[in-house]
Amino acid sequence: MFQYFSLVIFLFVVEFLFATLAFVFRENLGGTLKEELTEGIKVHYNATGSNSLENIWNHIHKEVLLESLICVTMLHGKAKSVPLQA
């Protein structure tokens, strides 16, 4: 029983210390987080290779469009291939 309460008190003290440090260094911490997030967006989401977010997104939408066109043609009784326009 004593171990449980000492653990709870210890965690409270650690959480309080981290909150105090975050409050003291909030301006520096906020600026650093903003810079890191901006840099991450520029590096990872602005890629121009085959694995770029834009190419992956376009590929997924082309597949969804093709599947939906196939389903529509099957529902109308016209089971034929539908050309995909980019």
Question: In words, what does this structure look like?
Answer:
The protein is mainly α. The chain has two domains: 1-46; 50-86. The chain is built from three helices and no strands. The chain has helices spanning 2-24, 26-44, 53-75. It is elongated and about 75 Å long. The termini are far apart. The mean pLDDT is 79.
Main sheet: strands, sense, barrel? none
- Name the beta content range: under 5%
Number of domains: 2
Measured on Cα atoms, how large is the radius of gyration? 27 Å
Q: Which term fits the overall shape?
A: elongated
H/E element string? HHH
Low-pLDDT sequence parts: none
- Helix-residue proportion: over 70%
Query: Which structural class best describes the helix and strand composition?
Result: mainly alpha
Produce a short descriptive summary.
The chain is mainly alpha-helical and 86 residues long. The chain has helices at residues 2-24, 26-44, 53-75.
